[in-house]
Amino acid sequence: MPVKLFGTVGPKILSSGGNSSYMDSNGNYTNGATTGPHLHLGIKKDGIAVDPLLFFNKD
User: Fold this and answer.
1) Is the pTM of this model over 0.70?
2) Backbone φ/ψ region at 33: left (φ over 0), alpha (ψ -120 to 50), beta
3) Which residues pair with 44 in a beta bridge?
4) Domain containing residue 17
5) pLDDT tens readout for residues 17-48
6) How many domains does the chain have?
7) What are the b/e assignments for 2-20, b being 16+ CB within 10 Å?
8) Which residues contact 42 (CB under 8 A, 6 or more apart)?
9) Is residue 49 included in any domain, yes or no?
10) What are the C-alpha distances in Å from 59 to residues 1, 18, 55?
């Protein structure tokens, strides 16, 4: 089964440093302690949170 792209991720970069002391690996200010791309994935079925890994093929 081919891999399907369902989104892209990246750090939220601030236009100026503001009050943030956090930077990514390129020296861009970010809005938190995360310095690299990441994804928070949540899935709800009938309004109830379920484990997202249940929807992925284990192969």
Assistant:
1) no
2) alpha
3) 49
4) 9-59
5) 667 777 777 887 776 666 666 777 889 999 99
6) 1
7) eeeeeeeeebeeeeeeeee
8) 49, 52
9) yes
10) 10, 45, 12
